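Honest question from a wet-lab person: if I give you the sequences of every part of a complex, can you actually get the arrangement of the whole thing, not just the pieces? Trying it with mine:
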Amino acid sequence: MMIQEKAHDNSYKRFLAMDVGITIVTYEGVCSHEVVVQIGQELEHLLAASTGVRFKKVFGVFIELIQNIKNYSAETVLAQNGTECGVGIIRVSEESLCYTVTAGNCIRKDDESRIEAKCAAVKHIPTAELRSHFNERIRLKQESTSKGAGVGFLDIAIKAGGNWEYEFHPVNDDFTFFTITAYIAKSKIAEEDAKSA
Amino acid sequence: MESVFLEKTTETPSVRMDVQGGFIELEGNSYPENAFEFYQQIFDWIDAYFAQGADRIRAVFRLNYFNTSSAKCMLNFMTLLQKYHGDDKMITVEWYYEEDDDDMLEIGKAFSVDFTMPFQLLSFVD
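Yes, you can. This is the full assembly:
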Protein backbone atom coordinates (compact mmCIF):
# COMPACT_ATOMS: atom_id res chain seq x y z
CA MET A 1 0.00 0.00 0.00
CA MET A 2 1.34 3.43 -0.94
CA ILE A 3 0.93 6.12 1.66
CA GLN A 4 0.45 9.54 0.03
CA GLU A 5 0.35 11.93 2.92
CA LYS A 6 1.98 15.22 3.77
CA ALA A 7 2.75 13.91 7.27
CA HIS A 8 4.48 10.94 5.69
CA ASP A 9 6.74 13.25 3.66
CA ASN A 10 7.54 15.07 6.88
CA SER A 11 8.72 11.79 8.43
CA TYR A 12 11.26 11.39 5.65
CA LYS A 13 12.32 15.03 5.93
CA ARG A 14 12.81 14.65 9.68
CA PHE A 15 14.80 11.48 9.06
CA LEU A 16 17.11 13.21 6.59
CA ALA A 17 17.57 16.18 8.91
CA MET A 18 18.96 14.00 11.73
CA ASP A 19 22.54 14.90 12.51
CA VAL A 20 24.44 11.63 12.16
CA GLY A 21 27.69 12.77 10.54
CA ILE A 22 28.91 12.26 6.99
CA THR A 23 26.66 10.13 4.82
CA ILE A 24 28.15 7.05 3.18
CA VAL A 25 24.93 5.65 1.73
CA THR A 26 21.33 6.84 1.83
CA TYR A 27 18.61 4.84 0.15
CA GLU A 28 14.90 5.60 0.04
CA GLY A 29 12.44 3.34 -1.73
CA VAL A 30 11.46 -0.26 -2.16
CA CYS A 31 13.79 -2.66 -0.33
CA SER A 32 13.59 -5.73 -2.55
CA HIS A 33 16.07 -8.55 -2.11
CA GLU A 34 18.00 -7.28 -5.15
CA VAL A 35 18.31 -3.82 -3.56
CA VAL A 36 19.51 -5.37 -0.28
CA VAL A 37 22.24 -7.28 -2.09
CA GLN A 38 23.25 -4.40 -4.35
CA ILE A 39 23.61 -1.80 -1.59
CA GLY A 40 25.25 -4.39 0.67
CA GLN A 41 27.89 -4.97 -1.98
CA GLU A 42 28.52 -1.24 -2.38
CA LEU A 43 28.82 -0.85 1.36
CA GLU A 44 31.32 -3.68 1.51
CA HIS A 45 33.30 -2.02 -1.28
CA LEU A 46 33.25 1.38 0.45
CA LEU A 47 34.00 0.26 4.00
CA ALA A 48 35.57 -3.17 4.30
CA ALA A 49 39.14 -2.16 3.51
CA SER A 50 39.28 0.64 6.09
CA THR A 51 37.39 -0.90 9.01
CA GLY A 52 38.46 -4.56 9.06
CA VAL A 53 36.49 -6.76 11.41
CA ARG A 54 34.42 -3.84 12.81
CA PHE A 55 32.95 -3.52 9.32
CA LYS A 56 31.07 -6.78 9.85
CA LYS A 57 29.10 -5.12 12.66
CA VAL A 58 28.12 -2.16 10.45
CA PHE A 59 27.28 -4.54 7.62
CA GLY A 60 25.30 -6.85 9.92
CA VAL A 61 23.21 -4.02 11.33
CA PHE A 62 22.62 -2.65 7.84
CA ILE A 63 21.41 -6.04 6.52
CA GLU A 64 19.18 -6.63 9.53
CA LEU A 65 17.59 -3.18 9.26
CA ILE A 66 17.06 -3.19 5.50
CA GLN A 67 15.59 -6.72 5.66
CA ASN A 68 13.29 -5.44 8.42
CA ILE A 69 12.03 -2.73 6.05
CA LYS A 70 11.60 -5.30 3.29
CA ASN A 71 9.63 -7.70 5.50
CA TYR A 72 7.76 -5.45 7.92
CA SER A 73 7.17 -1.96 6.50
CA ALA A 74 3.45 -1.19 6.35
CA GLU A 75 4.11 0.63 3.09
CA THR A 76 4.74 -1.83 0.27
CA VAL A 77 4.94 -1.90 -3.50
CA LEU A 78 5.18 -4.67 -6.06
CA ALA A 79 8.90 -4.80 -6.84
CA GLN A 80 10.40 -5.61 -10.23
CA ASN A 81 11.01 -9.21 -9.09
CA GLY A 82 7.26 -9.70 -8.70
CA THR A 83 7.17 -9.80 -4.90
CA GLU A 84 5.48 -7.33 -2.58
CA CYS A 85 8.30 -5.55 -0.72
CA GLY A 86 8.48 -2.96 2.02
CA VAL A 87 9.32 0.70 1.40
CA GLY A 88 11.48 2.76 3.72
CA ILE A 89 14.64 4.75 4.14
CA ILE A 90 18.07 3.71 5.39
CA ARG A 91 21.29 5.59 5.91
CA VAL A 92 24.84 4.61 6.85
CA SER A 93 27.00 7.47 8.01
CA GLU A 94 30.27 8.15 9.73
CA GLU A 95 31.32 10.27 12.69
CA SER A 96 34.76 10.52 14.24
CA LEU A 97 34.38 7.55 16.62
CA CYS A 98 31.51 5.55 15.19
CA TYR A 99 29.44 4.49 12.23
CA THR A 100 25.72 5.09 12.39
CA VAL A 101 23.04 3.03 10.69
CA THR A 102 19.55 4.54 10.74
CA ALA A 103 16.43 3.02 9.25
CA GLY A 104 12.87 4.33 9.06
CA ASN A 105 9.59 2.99 7.75
CA CYS A 106 5.86 3.22 8.30
CA ILE A 107 4.15 0.76 10.58
CA ARG A 108 0.45 0.34 11.33
CA LYS A 109 -0.60 2.33 14.35
CA ASP A 110 -2.14 -0.86 15.73
CA ASP A 111 1.33 -2.46 15.76
CA GLU A 112 3.07 0.42 17.51
CA SER A 113 2.54 -0.79 21.09
CA ARG A 114 3.69 -4.33 20.23
CA ILE A 115 6.88 -3.08 18.51
CA GLU A 116 7.47 -0.50 21.25
CA ALA A 117 7.25 -3.25 23.89
CA LYS A 118 9.69 -5.42 21.93
CA CYS A 119 12.22 -2.58 21.60
CA ALA A 120 11.83 -1.56 25.25
CA ALA A 121 12.37 -5.16 26.39
CA VAL A 122 15.67 -5.37 24.48
CA LYS A 123 16.72 -1.90 25.61
CA HIS A 124 16.18 -3.01 29.20
CA ILE A 125 18.70 -5.88 28.96
CA PRO A 126 22.20 -5.06 30.28
CA THR A 127 24.72 -5.07 27.41
CA ALA A 128 26.72 -7.94 28.91
CA GLU A 129 23.61 -10.15 28.91
CA LEU A 130 22.47 -9.47 25.33
CA ARG A 131 24.25 -12.48 23.86
CA SER A 132 22.76 -14.98 26.27
CA HIS A 133 19.30 -13.58 25.52
CA PHE A 134 20.00 -13.91 21.80
CA ASN A 135 21.09 -17.52 22.23
CA GLU A 136 17.98 -18.31 24.27
CA ARG A 137 15.67 -16.60 21.81
CA ILE A 138 16.88 -18.39 18.69
CA ARG A 139 16.22 -21.65 20.52
CA LEU A 140 12.56 -20.75 20.99
CA LYS A 141 9.94 -21.51 18.42
CA GLN A 142 9.48 -18.71 15.90
CA GLU A 143 6.80 -16.14 16.48
CA SER A 144 3.98 -16.57 14.00
CA THR A 145 4.19 -13.02 12.63
CA SER A 146 7.95 -13.16 12.17
CA LYS A 147 9.51 -13.83 8.77
CA GLY A 148 12.97 -14.05 10.34
CA ALA A 149 14.25 -15.51 13.55
CA GLY A 150 12.54 -12.88 15.75
CA VAL A 151 15.85 -11.73 17.20
CA GLY A 152 16.60 -8.75 14.96
CA PHE A 153 16.54 -6.08 17.69
CA LEU A 154 18.77 -8.21 19.92
CA ASP A 155 21.25 -8.71 17.11
CA ILE A 156 21.36 -4.96 16.44
CA ALA A 157 21.82 -4.23 20.15
CA ILE A 158 24.71 -6.73 20.34
CA LYS A 159 26.50 -5.34 17.28
CA ALA A 160 26.05 -1.78 18.56
CA GLY A 161 27.33 -2.75 22.02
CA GLY A 162 24.00 -1.59 23.50
CA ASN A 163 24.33 1.80 21.84
CA TRP A 164 21.08 2.10 19.85
CA GLU A 165 17.77 3.93 20.05
CA TYR A 166 14.31 3.97 18.52
CA GLU A 167 11.55 6.52 17.93
CA PHE A 168 7.94 6.63 16.85
CA HIS A 169 6.35 9.64 15.10
CA PRO A 170 2.66 9.74 14.19
CA VAL A 171 1.93 9.97 10.44
CA ASN A 172 -1.88 9.94 10.46
CA ASP A 173 -4.73 8.03 12.09
CA ASP A 174 -3.55 4.73 10.63
CA PHE A 175 0.24 4.92 10.45
CA THR A 176 3.29 5.67 12.57
CA PHE A 177 6.84 6.28 11.36
CA PHE A 178 9.28 3.98 13.16
CA THR A 179 13.00 4.80 13.27
CA ILE A 180 15.91 2.77 14.64
CA THR A 181 19.42 4.18 14.99
CA ALA A 182 22.45 2.04 15.88
CA TYR A 183 25.90 3.43 16.67
CA ILE A 184 28.79 1.08 15.94
CA ALA A 185 32.03 2.18 17.54
CA LYS A 186 35.07 2.18 15.24
CA SER A 187 37.13 0.33 17.82
CA LYS A 188 36.57 -1.79 20.91
CA ILE A 189 38.07 1.01 23.00
CA ALA A 190 35.63 3.55 21.57
CA GLU A 191 32.80 1.11 22.35
CA GLU A 192 33.86 0.89 26.00
CA ASP A 193 34.07 4.70 26.19
CA ALA A 194 30.59 5.07 24.72
CA LYS A 195 29.25 2.69 27.37
CA SER A 196 30.77 4.56 30.28
CA ALA A 197 29.79 8.00 28.92
CA MET B 1 24.17 -40.58 -3.98
CA GLU B 2 26.16 -37.74 -5.49
CA SER B 3 28.40 -35.04 -4.14
CA VAL B 4 26.95 -31.56 -4.61
CA PHE B 5 28.60 -28.18 -4.96
CA LEU B 6 26.66 -24.93 -4.65
CA GLU B 7 28.51 -21.91 -6.00
CA LYS B 8 29.02 -18.95 -3.71
CA THR B 9 26.85 -15.87 -4.36
CA THR B 10 26.97 -12.44 -2.75
CA GLU B 11 24.39 -13.48 -0.17
CA THR B 12 24.81 -17.27 0.05
CA PRO B 13 27.89 -19.31 0.98
CA SER B 14 29.50 -21.89 -1.25
CA VAL B 15 28.47 -25.34 -0.04
CA ARG B 16 30.52 -28.43 -0.78
CA MET B 17 28.76 -31.67 0.11
CA ASP B 18 31.27 -34.44 -0.51
CA VAL B 19 30.20 -38.08 -0.27
CA GLN B 20 33.64 -39.67 -0.88
CA GLY B 21 35.48 -37.24 1.40
CA GLY B 22 32.77 -37.47 4.07
CA PHE B 23 32.57 -33.74 4.65
CA ILE B 24 30.37 -30.71 4.19
CA GLU B 25 31.90 -27.25 3.97
CA LEU B 26 30.28 -23.80 3.93
CA GLU B 27 32.21 -20.67 3.10
CA GLY B 28 31.12 -17.04 2.63
CA ASN B 29 28.18 -14.82 3.59
CA SER B 30 24.68 -15.91 4.45
CA TYR B 31 21.74 -13.51 4.19
CA PRO B 32 19.51 -15.13 1.59
CA GLU B 33 16.00 -13.91 0.88
CA ASN B 34 14.69 -17.14 2.40
CA ALA B 35 17.30 -18.73 4.66
CA PHE B 36 15.05 -21.62 5.71
CA GLU B 37 14.55 -22.66 2.09
CA PHE B 38 18.26 -22.35 1.30
CA TYR B 39 19.34 -24.52 4.24
CA GLN B 40 16.60 -27.13 3.78
CA GLN B 41 18.29 -28.47 0.62
CA ILE B 42 21.49 -28.99 2.67
CA PHE B 43 19.60 -30.72 5.49
CA ASP B 44 17.91 -32.99 2.94
CA TRP B 45 21.31 -33.92 1.53
CA ILE B 46 22.64 -34.78 5.01
CA ASP B 47 19.61 -36.99 5.72
CA ALA B 48 20.10 -38.80 2.39
CA TYR B 49 23.85 -39.11 3.05
CA PHE B 50 23.28 -40.95 6.33
CA ALA B 51 20.32 -42.92 4.96
CA GLN B 52 22.65 -44.57 2.45
CA GLY B 53 24.86 -45.86 5.26
CA ALA B 54 27.55 -43.20 5.89
CA ASP B 55 29.05 -43.43 9.38
CA ARG B 56 30.85 -40.09 9.67
CA ILE B 57 30.82 -36.47 8.56
CA ARG B 58 33.11 -33.54 9.13
CA ALA B 59 31.17 -30.25 9.00
CA VAL B 60 33.24 -27.15 8.33
CA PHE B 61 31.84 -23.63 8.75
CA ARG B 62 33.93 -20.78 7.36
CA LEU B 63 31.37 -18.04 7.41
CA ASN B 64 32.19 -14.40 7.09
CA TYR B 65 28.81 -12.99 8.09
CA PHE B 66 25.31 -14.35 8.57
CA ASN B 67 22.00 -12.66 9.39
CA THR B 68 19.64 -13.65 12.18
CA SER B 69 17.47 -15.95 10.02
CA SER B 70 20.65 -17.77 9.03
CA ALA B 71 21.66 -17.94 12.72
CA LYS B 72 18.43 -19.82 13.40
CA CYS B 73 19.30 -22.11 10.46
CA MET B 74 22.78 -22.69 11.93
CA LEU B 75 21.12 -23.82 15.14
CA ASN B 76 18.89 -26.20 13.15
CA PHE B 77 22.03 -27.38 11.32
CA MET B 78 23.77 -28.22 14.62
CA THR B 79 20.63 -29.89 15.96
CA LEU B 80 20.49 -32.11 12.87
CA LEU B 81 24.18 -33.05 13.10
CA GLN B 82 23.83 -33.78 16.80
CA LYS B 83 20.90 -36.10 16.04
CA TYR B 84 23.26 -38.28 14.00
CA HIS B 85 26.08 -38.17 16.50
CA GLY B 86 26.10 -41.37 18.54
CA ASP B 87 27.42 -44.88 18.99
CA ASP B 88 27.65 -45.80 15.34
CA LYS B 89 28.30 -42.39 13.76
CA MET B 90 31.07 -39.85 14.17
CA ILE B 91 30.28 -36.14 13.69
CA THR B 92 32.89 -33.41 14.00
CA VAL B 93 32.30 -29.68 13.63
CA GLU B 94 34.93 -27.07 12.78
CA TRP B 95 33.75 -23.51 13.36
CA TYR B 96 36.05 -20.85 11.94
CA TYR B 97 35.99 -17.20 13.00
CA GLU B 98 38.14 -14.33 11.87
CA GLU B 99 40.49 -13.16 14.60
CA ASP B 100 38.75 -10.36 16.61
CA ASP B 101 35.33 -11.26 15.19
CA ASP B 102 33.70 -11.66 18.60
CA ASP B 103 30.21 -12.08 17.10
CA MET B 104 31.21 -15.17 15.10
CA LEU B 105 33.28 -16.53 18.01
CA GLU B 106 30.53 -16.09 20.61
CA ILE B 107 27.82 -17.79 18.57
CA GLY B 108 30.24 -20.67 17.91
CA LYS B 109 31.03 -20.87 21.62
CA ALA B 110 27.33 -21.08 22.47
CA PHE B 111 26.91 -23.97 20.00
CA SER B 112 29.98 -25.74 21.34
CA VAL B 113 28.50 -25.65 24.86
CA ASP B 114 25.02 -26.74 23.76
CA PHE B 115 26.01 -29.79 21.77
CA THR B 116 28.00 -32.84 22.83
CA MET B 117 29.51 -33.69 19.42
CA PRO B 118 33.19 -32.75 18.99
CA PHE B 119 33.24 -29.02 18.22
CA GLN B 120 36.39 -27.06 17.41
CA LEU B 121 36.61 -23.26 17.43
CA LEU B 122 39.35 -22.15 15.06
CA SER B 123 40.52 -18.61 14.39
CA PHE B 124 41.98 -17.38 11.14
CA VAL B 125 43.54 -14.13 9.96
CA ASP B 126 42.04 -12.69 6.80
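Two things worth pointing out. Chain B has one domain: 4-124. Strands of chain B lie at 4-6, 14-18, 23-30, 56-66, 90-98, 119-124.
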